[in-house]
Amino acid sequence: MLALWVAYIPFIVSMVKSDRERIQQLLSKKQEIASPDGKLKVTTSGMWTKVPELSKQASLQVGYKDKKMYLIVISEPKSSVRNMTLEQHHQLTRDHMLQKMKNASSTQPASLTVDGHPALQDEVSGKQQRADLVFLHTTVDEGDSFQ
User: Fold this and answer.
1) Confidence band (pLDDT; 50, 70, 90) for 25?
2) Which residues have a Cβ under 8 Å from the Cβ of 103 and sit 6 or more positions away?
């Protein structure tokens, strides 16, 4: 019996080494994941995949499930929120997120540019259904829509 186990050791070591190499390749690999209509794209490592069950409203949903990290993009045409500024839309969506959580808080929004478009970003955190959540909440003004 011992001889059988000794024979398996190189095989097990080879499997572990192969798994480590595969994970390293996925971590270093860059891939582009697009929304079903192809309008939205995100570049991620190979560990991220499409996760269509996150939100019925989302235009793009991806996740790195092992790390419990997710990206959800919700598109809203400006025609549905007439005369709303980037600041107003960001505040509206942030307030909506804060209302859904217990012990909720957020940082002050910071201005930034995403793919050449003006954006605001803050961190929103709180508790929802026994889970502690932290969101990097970003609103992008794409001219005819908010993302």
Assistant:
1) low
2) 126, 127
